Amino acid sequence: DAMVIQNPRYQVTQFGKPVTLSCSQTLNHNVMYWYQQKSSQAPKLLFHYYDKDFNNEADTPDNFQSRRPNTSFCFLDIRSPGLGDAAMYLCATSKAGGFSYEQYFGPGTRLTVT
Amino acid sequence: AQTVTQSQPEMSVQEAETVTLSCTYDTSESDYYLFWYKQPPSRQMILVIRQEAYKQQNATENRFSVNFQKAAKSFSLKISDSQLGDAAMYFCAYRSARNAGNMLTFGGGTRLMVKP
After folding, report:
1. pLDDT of the residue at A40
2. Which of A42, B18, B27, B29 satisfies CB 3.0 to 4.6 Å to B2 for a cystine?
3. DSSP string, B72-99
């Protein structure tokens, strides 16, 4: 089945130690998104790629970076995680344009910062 | 900018009963799309139902239906014959028709509990 895959599902990192989360998709969608979701809150968009074009949300901290080496993969890099960065990180994809092109979400990576 | 408001942080329903989750939004646009997403505990978010703003007919997907009131900017979700598996966070979301990147504006979510 076509899907959005996130690895790892659980990640523990130390305060200030860089960490990378990965997302891959078999849907061949041209848009990929990274969201941060804290407990019982709505997902907060960090950035998205429209094809190769990177779009950063205005309030996304510089501590968060992203890479998309090809259509299928997208990475979220947190350069110096703080305690406040502990959250669920969701990857999503969609096909640009059209009504039926909803966002498809991965299962998320839960990040713990110690 | 568009905003989406879900006024019910938590809702509870008895199994087999019907529950309605509320959502209001604010926009100056006339063409847009609305969605309800479901996020079960520790599971991924999935689309429940969607509505095109230009359609007057309310969308229906099996036990899930919406009451779309465009003039009132209201988009409620009705779940009939509630099942234990319906327990989840439900997010209402808005997407502008002009948004080529399919960007969503989410409401704050409603946690639905289903009592056996």
Report:
1. 84
2. B27
3. TTEEEEEE-S--GGG-EEEEEEEEETT-
Residue A97 above 90 pLDDT?
no
> Any residues with CB less than 8 A from the CB of B57 and at least 6 apart, and which?
none
Residue A101 Cα, gap to closest chain B Cα (Å): 7
Helix (H) or strand (E) holding A68: none
β pairing state of A109-113 and B88-96: unpaired
Contact B43, B57 (CB under 8 A): no
* Sequence-distant (≥ 6) Cβ neighbours of residue A102 within 8 angstroms: A94, B35, B47, B50, B102
Is the Cβ–Cβ distance between B107 and B93 less than 8 Å? yes
pLDDT at site B3: 93
Write the single-letter amino acid at A66.
S
